[in-house]
Amino acid sequence: MITVVVADDEPMVCAHLRTILGSAGDIEVVAQARDGAEAVEEVVRHRPSVVLMDLRMPGVDGLTAIERICALPEPPAVVALTTFDADTYVIRALRAGAAGFLVKSTPPEDLIGLVRVAADGHTVLSPSAARRLVALSSDGHRRDDEARRRTAGLTERERDVLACLGEGLSNADIAGRLHLAEATVKSYVSRMLVKLDCTNRTQAGLLAHEAGLVGR
C-alpha cells in the first residue's frame, strides 16, 4: 500500500486529491496538513511513502517543509504541488530535495500513476519541464559554475549516467543506452548521489542540466 500525506491550505484541494487517490486500490491518504509545520508533524507520525506538498502556504511554507522532511532519516518522496508548470519557486523545491512536481490541474488518471512513480523512487518531472526550470533560475550563471565544480570529479561513465538522469531515464533505459547491466546502473546512481550530495535522482538530474551535461 502506498501511503500519502497531502499538504495544502485549501480544504477543497485536499478533498479533491483524497478522493482521486482514494479511488486507487493501492493508495491511501493517511493524513492532511494545512501548512508546512503540520506536514512535517504528519510525516513523522505516519512515515508515508509520498508527500504531496503545496509550495505556497501561510506560516511555514512548502519549501521550508520540504527541507525539513528531506533532512529526516529515510525521508519519503516529496512531490511539490503548483498551479503553474513553470513556477520559479519550484526549482528551489527541487534543489531542497523534492522528487519532482505536479501541476494541480493534472488529470486524475495521471495523478494516480505519477504518485506510484514517485513511490517507486523515480522522478516526477518531464525533461522539458526540467529544462524550463533551469532556464528560469535567477542565479543561473553562479549555479552553472557550482554545478561544474561539483561534477568535476566524476568519471566519464558517471557523467554519462548523470546526463541520462537529467533526461529523466529509468535505470533500465540507462542500461539499454549505455550497454550496462541494470544492477550496474543502480550502483552508479547510488554512488553518485553520495558523491554529489544529492538527496534523490531528481536533484541529481537537475544538477546535470546545470552542469551542461544533458545534450552535450
From TrEMBL:
InterPro entries attached to this UniProt entry: CheY-like_superfamily, NreC/VraR/RcsB-like_REC, Sig_transdc_resp-reg_C-effctor, Sig_transdc_resp-reg_receiver, Tscrpt_reg_LuxR_C, WalR-like
Superkingdom of the organism of origin: Bacteria
Gene Ontology process terms (BP): phosphorelay signal transduction system; regulation of DNA-templated transcription
This protein's record includes keyword Transcription: yes
Domain HTH luxR-type: 147-212
Source species of the chain: Amycolatopsis dendrobii
Residue ranges of domain Response regulatory in the record: 3-119
Protein name according to UniProt: Response regulator transcription factor
Gene Ontology molecular function: DNA binding
Record-linked CDD domains: LuxR_C_like (cd06170), REC_NarL-like (cd17535)
Keywords for this protein: DNA-binding, Phosphoprotein, Transcription, Transcription regulation
